[in-house]
Amino acid sequence: METTISYEQLAIELTANLAQRESDMSVKKALDFALLEDFDHLYRFSNLLMMEQGIDAKNLVGGFTEITPGRPTISEHRHPYDDVRYAGDNKVADSITRLNVAIITAAEQQTMNFYMNVANLYKSEIGRKLFAEIGMIEEQHVSQYESLMDPTCTWLVSLLEHEYTECYLYYSMINDETDEQIKRIWEVCLEQEIAHLHKANELLTKYENRDYTTVYKNGGKFPELLSFGKSNIEYIRKVLKNTVYNTAKKEDYVKVSSLPQDYEFFKIQNIINKNLAQVPSHKVIEMYIKNNKQDYRFETSLNPVKDLQNRKEDNTTVGR
Ligand SMILES: [Fe+2]
Ligand SMILES: [Fe+2]
Ligand SMILES: [Fe+2]
Q1: CA 35 – ligand 1 centroid, Å
Q2: What percent of the chain has a predicted confidence (pLDDT) above 70?
Q3: Ligand 3 centroid to 146 CA: how many Å?
Q4: Which long-range contacts (CB under 8 A, 24 or more apart) does 26-33 make?
Q5: For the CA of 197, the nearest ligand
Q6: What rounded mean pLDDT belongs to the chain?
Q7: Tens digit of pLDDT for each residue in 36-94?
Q8: What angle, 0 to 180 degrees and rounded to 10, lies between the N-to-C axes of helices 2-21 and 233-243?
Q9: Which ligand lies nearest to the CA atom of residue 34 in the structure?
């Protein structure tokens, strides 16, 4: 279970971090949108963790992230039509945008794979069901982020971009790391990735008659490095307050109240979440409240959304 918390924490830290630096508004909107959903997953898993193992998730997030409801997981199940965004264009996209999209797609993919492949071995039924439900949301997140990539990118340019992203991440880790032992590991990994990057560039030159300078206009110079270890509390509070009632409508985001009544979102919600008592992400909070009179949270002040402040009843209406 600690692994789960760290996957959600990683997704949240990365997403908040990337969204704050992102200049392309459509990519930034996508990051802010899924941010609130992984934020809610952290809350649901933290309740399960405390309920079953008595572990306080506050200690695992290092005080950098609050644990309180986001866009309720029940509201995150959308029709597949609404998970795909407009594709990016590498000819105009900033290199930080391309890095951000590559990084967050990888993080969401990893989260999805863990939930879908390993979590069916989890010991309790409510836990297995919660993983199964949230695994489906992670699939939506992967689809959203993957769709932001440039589909005209060739195999070898894509290879170069992957290796470049790995170099950027390890280089960022080295710069951020305070533990000398761990830093050594990142250094070894960076050296390996640099070798891969050279190989990718060689292949690009050999088979496409072009090199990295045609892929990265600034000669491959890294943009501002990624940095962990800072609080994302204020940033997430702002996004939560302003956009919690949003959902996706085709390639864009709108207030759920603006959708026509016969919209796909409501049809799919009516199939998946018809019976509230069978929705694991809701049930886990209900179970916790039943045993403890109120839910588990770690808040620095009240949840910025009034509808999400009640700790004695899980909200199932915000965002749907
Ligand atoms: Fe998540
Ligand atoms: Fe996610
Ligand atoms: Fe590599």
Answers
A1: 9
A2: 99
A3: 19
A4: 26/85, 26/86, 26/148, 27/88, 27/97, 27/100, 27/101, 27/148, 29/253, 30/85, 30/144, 30/145, 30/148, 31/100, 31/104, 32/239, 32/243, 33/144, 33/243, 33/246, 33/248, 33/253
A5: 3
A6: 96
A7: 999 999 999 999 999 999 999 999 998 899 999 999 999 999 999 999 999 999 989 99
A8: 80
A9: 2
Half-sphere exposure of 105 (CA within 13 A, CB side): 17
- Summarize pLDDT for 2-48 with one digit per residue, the tens: 778 889 999 999 999 999 988 899 999 999 999 999 999 999 999 99
CA 134 to ligand 1 center in whole angstroms = 7
User: Which ligand is closest in space to the CA of residue 141?
Assistant: 2
Q: Looking at residue 1, what is its pLDDT?
A: 59
Residues 6+ apart with CB under 8 A from 90: 98, 150, 152, 153, 157, 215
Tokens of 72: 């309720």
pLDDT digits (tens, 9 = 90+) for 86-120: 999 998 999 999 999 999 999 999 999 999 999 99
Cα-to-centroid distance, 162 and ligand 3 (Å): 7
Centroid of ligand 3 to alpha carbon of 163 (angstroms): 5
